[in-house]
Amino acid sequence: MGENQDETEKVAPARRGAVLGRIFRSQDGAAAIEFALLALPYFMIVFAILETFVAYTGEQLVANAVDTVARKLRTGSITAANTDRTAFRRTFCDEVSIMIKCSEEEIATPDKLWLDVRSFPSFADIPGNVPLNTSQDLDTASVNNYSPGAQKTINMVRAYYRWDVITDLLRPYITNIRPSGGRPNYFLIVETATFRNEDYP
Length: 201
What we know:
The chain is of the alpha+beta class. It has a 4-stranded mixed beta sheet with strand order 2-1-3-4, covered by helices on one side. It starts with a helix and ends in a 5-residue tail after the last strand.
């Protein structure tokens, strides 16, 4: 009787150890837990790649449009006499329409796309900074100009486009303009072309 009891007492801890070992070795639900831990950073990386790719594609599109309209200004195809501000904005919007949609309202009253066309006495006088107002937003009052120069004048064409970031979680990390007013943070695309007009007829 005593011997059987001793054997039972020896077997019980061994069984408990085997059960605990099976619990700790169990892989049930491990994949779900790992996914839950890694899903957020994984999807943030994926969306960051997509957002950055689309934004830089839009930036290249705006750069190409600036080069195209600048060439038309340089050669006299577009002048202050034959093209007004609205027609110029419509021409620019046609160049970016494959990806950036400009409504007639946007063409008439800018909100996202701002075009700054001016002439200067010298290349050194052309501003190199992005004008911001007291709210750290784009100073739209100083970038809404359309006054191209005549033959042989030095000109600048600069486009500003407020590119909205779709993914809220990423907006603080991939935007470069963070206004203190009501507008959400956005990525500001800025493209510039400077040139001297040709001696066109």
